[in-house]
Hints:
With 344 residues, chain A is an alpha+beta fold. Chain B is α+β, with helices and mostly antiparallel strands. The longest helix of chain B has 19 residues. Chains A and B meet through α5, β1, β2, β4 and β5 of A and β2, α8, α11, α13 and α14 of B.
Amino acid sequence: xxxxxxxxxxxxxxxxxxxxxxxxxxxxxxxxxxxxxxxxxxxxxxxxxxxxxxxxxxxxxxxxxxxxxxxxxxxxxxxxxxxxxxxxxxxxxxxxxxxxxxxxxxxxxxxxxxxxxxxxxxxxxxxxxxxxxxxxxxxxxxxxxxxxxxxxxxxxxxxxxxxxxxxxxxxxxxxxxxxxxxxxxxxxxxxxxxxxxxxxxxxxxxxxxxxxxxxxxxxxxxxxxxxxxxxxxxxxxxxxxxxxxxxxxxxxxxxxxxxxxxxxxxxxxxxxxxxxxxxxxxxxxxxxxxxxxxxxxxxxxxxxxxxxxxxxxxxxxxxxxxxxxxxxxxxxxxxxxxxxxxxx
Amino acid sequence: xxxxxxxxxxxxxxxxxxxxxxxxxxxxxxxxxxxxxxxxxxxxxxxxxxxxxxxxxxxxxxxxxxxxxxxxxxxxxxxxxxxxxxxxxxxxxxxxxxxxxxxxxxxxxxxxxxxxxxxxxxxxxxxxxxxxxxxxxxxxxxxxxxxxxxxxxxxxxxxxxxxxxxxxxxxxxxxxxxxxxxxxxxxxxxxxxxxxxxxxxxxxxxxxxxxxxxxxxxxxxxxxxxxxxxxxxxxxxxxxxxxxxxxxxxxxxxxxxxxxxxxxxxxxxxxxxxxxxxxxxxxxxxxxxxxxxxxxxxxxxxxxxxxxxxxxxxxxxxxxxxxxxxxxxxxxxxxxxxxxxxxxxxxxxxxxxxxxxxxxxxxxxxxxxxxxxxxxxxxxxxxxxxxxxxxxxxxxxxxxxxxxxxxxxxxxxxxxxxxxxxxxxxxxxxxxxxxxxxxxxxxxxxxxxxxxxxxxxxxxxxxxxxxxxxxxxxxxxxxxxxxxxxxxxxxxxxxxxxxxxxxxxxxxxxxxxxxxxxxxxxxxxxxxxxxxxxxxxxxxxxxxxxxxxxxxxxxxxxxxxxxxxxxxxxxxxxxxxxxxxxxxxxxxxxxxxxxxxxxxxxxxxxxxxxxxxxxxxxxxxxxxxxxxxxxxxxxxxxxxxxxxxxxxxxxxxxxxxxxxxxxxxxxxxxxxxxxxxxxxxxxxxxxxxxxxxxxxxxxxxxxxxxxxxxxxxxxxxxxxxxxxxxxxxxxxxxxxxxxxxxxxxxxxxxxxxxxxxxxxxxxxxxxxxxxxxxxxxxxxxxxxxxxxxxxxxxxxxxxxx
Lengths: 344, 801
């Protein structure tokens, strides 16, 4: 019976395709959708079928009926317009419109806006800091003194400028975490901020490295901020940015400016956790580093760590549209190629 | 760091499969980046011993070894040149999975007839077993290998690749990782018994040690071993080093490296007979002191570097690299074994100044515990006696000026809750900490414990550090998920954030694509913007050690990168191109960070619209660019004035300054022909540039509502003839200065034709309207006549007949 119905549908559509005069449409309607049509007959006879078959056949017959009615409507509108056009009264609506130039925002700008909007809805305010920074804000204030190994993992571009004291301590910020101390110095708790922007590394370009990219950091300071709140905030972000189904993992990790430290990973977007090349067979993709702001960082900026607790996180932005759109070369973001930019 | 599972199993019982073990370590902070199973598919491969080697009857290069497998003694065909009777080898039976030595493909071993002789099995090379790429000859196994045992039992292993975080130098050792595994799986760690027999004279009579720079060397321990014989290490030791990524050298050096991998304490062996004056001194180098290091290079030292010296000269750059002068040779018979501790910052400075990376340096830089020296020293001394012979002098030298008593830390359940947002009991906290080797004692309050970190945990100094230990042991997944409570902070959003977003969207709406380009640029590129050669003013900021000449200066404008982007796109794009970038430029300030104004720069080139059936493809001109500026500013709610401008990168005749509220906020114009040429752009290019930081305040000005007149307006058109030098602006200023005039619009501009040379015609539509009454024709006529009179008087305008 199901097969018969499908054959009936094919036959009906084929015949409709061939109709070229509005007046012939009524005959087609009577034949396929009319009171004496085969389809109507099937629907009438449903009650006699066994319950299981009735469900299946009924559903299909109704779907076909609705489909055919929709097709009939379309055909009827088409024939009408063709008729008007032929009579010199209409226009060919399939002709293209006037070509107004279209433009688009850069995918990174779109991503930053999306992330900021998610955090704004959780009470986080967007602030920005300078891209050219002092060593103090980029390193010292974050528990990264001169000999710290963490400096090696952030190859730094130093600026050729001397202070009055003859020190060369101006640099291109290596992470947006450099804004943390400025915020702590300038604002009074409770604080909730996100800090997006460009960051720089002394690094040659390849498919996964560029000397300039984007990050966003966040900071929440209050009397009762906990790691549970950090988890809650990040879960909410992950849910909204990566989707309801995407699994999230928190593991212990080390960053000099937080204690305890956390790394958040999401289930791999390509393999869904079973392991592939993108995730290095781990099933997880690291998304951000986080933790409870180190008491010395708070103290140094005049926030009493006995009174206040704080969480912070920092995330690379470029990676997110790369994962989302399957972009395999980070340099494309900075190549200004319209063939790339038109796609977002 | 690479760690062998087999080695780990010597210190801790491990039953978990590799994947689960990796997961536990990763979740607790030491990420396992991957692991390699050695011998996972070595079925049908066993240890054999070569009993006899007969020549192949039909081939000179092949032999017929007979191999004892315990249960049987097959004879097979072999092409390897290094077969020796008595050698232990890996023997593959038919059915074994191997790598083809020539093609590198995976194969299953089958019985084969080779030059007329049937061979059922094979003696394997390292490559055939998948251990390395070596296919020079068959792999000879250590003599302790037992004939007949499966090769996987003898040599199989799992090598974990660990990413040890910089705060955990203790985990740069097998014992350190074993301790983590023990804590995470509820097991005990068994440390090796490092006892050894001492003999002969006491060490103090044979060598003296002095630390002249105790700030840079908190501890120096040493033992002395005489009668050693330098030789290659046994195979098991070499294998351990290879698995840890180090190259075997000789038994003593290999032992120092082995113990470094085992305990995490770098050791160094000096040839005792080359230490002059029986004296070791730890001192700062003299300025200009030269030392030839093990790699044969002359190193110029400075006085902030630490050296290990004898009474006459430097022997080693402390903690970084040994010296060639005291290096062990094949003739060495007595050694001084050093286990010391050095200041991390000093090691970092010395190592990075000399450009010497090393395993030892990495450990010292991260701050290993000075308590480590003795256990490691004892262990290495024991192994040297065992594997290189000789005898240890009585006692060790141990100079320890930097001894620090461990400081107990108070940890309360309240502190754990305050940071983690979850209640853990004292019992849970104690269990977690004790399993990691921490000592937990009761404190004054029942909700507190007094915790002392084990000596190897040099990273622990605060209660927050202990909270992390508790959290990672119990598991981060046990921390609940909540949203920050309390008062939502007052929002004082910086208007520039929304403003930038709005500008971006408007530009996209006008058909522009946003680009993001690098903030650094080159002097040569910047100079292309100048039709006449002269220095840039103000001089842009420069980076030290630029990567390339194109990435040397902090950009003072966005123009260079946009013009380059346009040129790059022109290679594959026809038609109209519109690009913009919104980003910062950097302006030098004395004794301060540079100013970083937010700039907008946009380019238009090519056709106004794509060519289509609706019409042609007229090119854009100045008024397209200006129209975009007017439209953008209009949408932002500010009125702009366009005034004469002298931007040298733009065509002198076709440019205007954008002035808002009396302030010049930008410029719009046609890119100077010479500049366009410098960027290989043959077409006309229009540019607009606005300093958004300067513009922003004007967009925030408070506006008042203008009442809408209820009375009808009167509209009049006038066509004027004026001298070509008279500007539209002059005319409009006069007309709109009259009362009742609410709007003036230019609707036609005409030159040539019947007009005399040097004249042009401007046609205006003027709207008259009163806010308080219906305007009569009479009243409008009066004003119109006054306007015409004034235009005639001031600008010499006549009405066009």
